[in-house]
Amino acid sequence: MSSFLKIAIRNLLKGPSTDPYPFGETFVPKGLRGKIKYNAKACVACRMCEHVCAGGAIQIREVADKSGLEFILWHNTCAFCGLCEHYCPTKAIRLTEDYHTAHKQEDKYRYVEKGFIKYVNCAQCGTPMVPIASELLNVAYDQVNKDIEKLRHLCPKCRQERALR
Amino acid sequence: MKKLLQKIAKKSPWLYRINAGSCNGCDVELATTACIPRYDVERLGCKYCGSPKHADIVLITGPLTARVKEKVLRLYDEIPDPKVTVAIGVCPISGGVFRDSYAITGPIDKFIPVDVNVPGCPPRPQAIIDGIVEAIKIWETRL
Ligand code: SF4
Ligand code: SF4
Ligand code: SF4
């Protein structure tokens, strides 16, 4: 009985153990996997994320006017598994610590993360191509020198020609 | 008298949970909001109940598997109107990772009108609380 009283008194002095949320601030454990954020600037459209996505949440498609690629991620089927982030070579896709996902039914299909990659033209022949992100160069090379910087603006075909010259 | 009852009822919606074939992940998070003082949803004036006949806000988890479909729909029909429906987890909303499987008949909104979605696999207790707050707001307009 006395031990019970001790616990009761200790709990009384300690105050409430309830997390104040939604009336106050809450805590976020470090490394929590939440809603995904996409950065079109760093994306090289390798489509690895689309390929590995467990929930089939990602689609990368050419837009109707063929001016670039559109990235769409539907939060309503994302399992927060983190495979996309793990396999993305340039870390263009990341899981944030934002876990606030509640929304009304009418927004169900609007609850997406979007991005657009505009094609650039090859510096030599003018063919439209996906721009090569500097993030990718940093992964591929220790140091990006002038030659590499030049090759970066060429389409694969012209790059091959230049390299074999 | 009816007005007074409406006013009181608004402050205390009863929650009811339906498992439509979930993997149990979302249910554990729901149990967390009910049983662990840290995330106590009863602070919002609501309370989990054991009978569909008492329910005001319905929380559904799982992708509506073929096996439980009829039972879930029957149960849902037993809940008196007006009611607010909240889909918890990506499973009831889109099928989640089970999407396109022969074993599931969802998404749930093919058969049941949904009001609020709380995606996540599973969503955090705080996200579920967000969804319940949203549901209470809708509930107040329906009474
Ligand atoms: S976290 Fe998993 S389910 Fe979500 S987009 Fe990435 S790969 Fe797909
Ligand atoms: S987000 Fe990453 S994995 Fe997906 S296409 Fe872009 S670079 Fe590739
Ligand atoms: S959303 Fe994820 S955790 Fe919830 S029932 Fe479906 S698979 Fe399980």
Automatic annotation (TrEMBL), chain A:
Gene Ontology molecular functions: 4 iron, 4 sulfur cluster binding; metal ion binding; oxidoreductase activity, acting on NAD(P)H
Any one cellular-component term (Gene Ontology): membrane
Gene3D superfamilies, per database record: 3.30.70.3270
Superkingdom field: Bacteria
Pfam families registered for this protein in UniProt: Fer4_7
Source organism of this protein record: Thermanaerosceptrum fracticalcis
Domain 4Fe-4S ferredoxin-type: 34-63, 69-98
Keyword annotations of the record: 4Fe-4S, Iron, Iron-sulfur, Metal-binding
Name under which the protein is recorded: 4Fe-4S dicluster domain-containing protein
InterPro entries the UniProt entry points to: 4Fe4S_Fe-S-bd, 4Fe4S_Fe_S_CS, NADH_quinone_OxRdtase_chainI
TrEMBL record, chain B:
Alphabetical UniProt keywords: 4Fe-4S, Iron, Iron-sulfur, Metal-binding, Oxidoreductase
Keyword Iron-sulfur: yes
EC number assigned by the record: 1.6.5.11
Cofactor(s) the protein needs: [4Fe-4S] cluster
Domain of life: Bacteria
Gene Ontology MF terms in the entry: 4 iron, 4 sulfur cluster binding; metal ion binding; oxidoreductase activity
Domain NADH:ubiquinone oxidoreductase-like 20kDa subunit per the UniProt entry, residue ranges: 23-134
One Pfam family of this chain: Oxidored_q6
InterPro entries in UniProt: Complex_I_20kDa-like, NADH_UbQ_OxRdtase-like_20kDa
Xref: NCBIfam families: PRK06411.1 (NF005012)
Family recorded in the similarity comment: Belongs to the complex I 20 kDa subunit family.
Descriptive protein name: NADH-quinone oxidoreductase subunit NuoB
Provenance organism: Thermanaerosceptrum fracticalcis
